[in-house]
Design a protein that fits this description.
homodimer; alpha/beta; Rossmann fold; Dihydrodipicolinate Reductase, domain 2; 2 domains; 8-stranded parallel β-sheet; 13 helices; 16 strands; globular
Chain lengths: ~325, ~325
């Protein structure tokens, strides 16, 4: 499967790395619109760089080798991963349609852009869909946690409380440094409902930190599952880490000590010492490493769209490429 | 050379990794005083864990295998790297003296504890010294930059302005979040003078960020070196990166994209686009990744103390182990 990545930012660069490692995929290249240090890094990593025709000279002036135009890149591939800035996907979709290429979009796009996707929850629904939307890191994490709980217990209602990171680590603008903002009825509950049928509300805060979102769930069950049962169900999930921790920095430091590239964990960390159960209500928090959680879903979406493998095999291969099984085991051991 | 690391924090864990990779060294083990997740990480990395005798039961209760007591560890080694908390080294020195072991201390100790050391500036002065003090990351970085400039030009006076990071990334207390503090006549200029003879003052600020210190130097020369000459001299240094950048986060993101363990750069980054030259005064800034800069010096100090290799060979081997040659080349290419 020939894959290209249109947009080389936080998500795009990680998806490109994963595609390059996948046994059934070939990375045709990535697109860049500015001849900056990110373009040089892509070159350093050996990726083909495709640019708008009118910008070729700008790149070459900076000594960056250009593989061709963005349109040539798209023509040469079987599927596009669109990792452009939030909201730009809609305009790009017209181009993909014109060139007859299927595409995977990100969660920053409106849900009308394509079939919302979470590997654990609805892998098979993506088969042959022309356009797929991998939901955001928070929604992906909620799905990874709620789907197994819903399979095991009857959930009556979910209330989500998110403390989002103010900016990604390499973002030097567009973030607050001394303020918390909030949004009632945030998009997250709606987005979960594009994948999982569960009554849910969400309230999202944004605070001045960069390492990870810290999201909490109040789940109202029909029944009274114990703390231990909740933890056991989530610990059995390949794409959820369950750990004891007291801060986002403690978790990220473990990722750094393990030598993980970019300290990426690829998984939400369910905080086992945050679980509080009272009657039929259970509360717990998850830490969401915002940059890397959706990488696995992008890879699985490519596989699902093209029918390359069945669900279980695809998820297993993706986890192996990203080292998720080892990461889960190591973090659960060190923060046990 | 049998080496142990007493204190397994920010510096200790990095020095332990480097010792374990050194062809002439054997890591006997590291000491831990609390059976926390850092102890579990050391176990995960395969390091022998030595604890105070009275705490052995606490560690074993948590399932952490103990290799012996701290005193046994020190007895079994040829040299101790003391990476304990600032100011604790003085008390530890008495123990090392009692057991007849040489030791390397860190820059948080008073300079009376041992011979101040910077590999580039005074490697040979450490030969056979019983106690050596690797100066702090800022002082180390200043020495790495000032020594070659002093060899090439006549420096009349240096004024240093430091913007220090408020806390290390995994520190959840002891740092400010909305304040800048300052100290005139900070210890840095004094510390540089324990190694390099140059008239110098320093003024240090501390601000709420974690990625790196950002330190600036006003250097008054006897003569008028150009911007280009300054850059050329520093670019020729193996332990100084020279790069064009606009923020600490941009530099750290490059380290992450390169997949560097813990995003450690091991070197100050001289910001080429910060250089301003006017008459006989030159101004420039350096970014100091505070966690990792002194690792190389700790390794070289062990070699120098024991007379294992001559200066150039030691520095080259240390740089190879830490991948510093590749890191310098990559960062200078991507941020060229």
């Amino acid at each position: 499967m020939k894959v290209c990545v249109n947009g080389y930012g936080t998500i795009g660069k990680r998806v490109a790395d994963a595609v390059a490692m996948h046994p059934k995929m070939q990375l045709i290249g990535i697109s860049k619109y500015t001849p900056d240090n990110h373009a040089k890094m892509a070159e350093r990593l050996g990726y083909g760089i495709y640019v708008p025709a009118e910008k070729t000279a700008d790149f070459e002036k900076k000594g960056i080798k250009v593989g061709g135009t963005v349109e040539e890149m798209i023509k040469a591939c079987d599927i596009v991963v669109d990792a452009s800035a939030d909201g730009k996907g809609a305009a790009n979709r017209a181009l993909y349609e014109k060139l007859g290429k299927p595409a995977i979009f990100q969660g920053g796009e409106d849900d009308s852009i394509g079939k919302s996707f979470n590997a654990r929850s609805n892998f098979d629904a993506a088969r042959n869909e022309k356009f797929i939307r991998v939901v955001s890191c928070n929604t992906t994490s909620f799905c990874r946690v709620l789907k197994p709980l819903q399979e095991r217990f009857k959930i009556k209602r979910v209330n989500g409380f998110l403390i989002r990171r103010g900016a990604d680590p390499d973002d030097v603008k567009g973030s607050q440094i001394n303020s918390i903002d909030w949004k009632a009825n945030s998009h997250h509950s709606h987005d979960v409902n594009t994948i999982i049928d569960v009554p849910m509300t969400s309230l999202a805060f944004k605070a001045p930190h960069t390492l990870a979102h810290v999201n909490s769930l109040y789940i109202h069950f029909d029944g009274e599952p114990s703390k231990e049962e909740i933890i056991k169900v989530l610990k059995a999930e390949n794409r959820v880490i369950v750990a004891k921790a007291d801060s986002t920095s403690q978790i990220i430091e473990v990722a750094r000590d393990l030598g993980l590239k970019r300290y990426d964990l690829y998984m939400p960390v369910m905080i086992s010492n945050s679980v509080m159960a009272e009657g039929n209500t259970v509360f717990f928090s998850i830490v969401v490493p915002q940059e890397s959680v959706v990488v696995a879903e992008n890879i699985d979406a490519i596989v699902a769209q093209g029918g390359l493998m069945a669900k279980e095999e695809s998820m297993r291969v993706t986890e192996k490429i990203l080292g998720m099984d080892r990461i889960k085991k190591d973090v659960e051991t060190v923060l046990g």
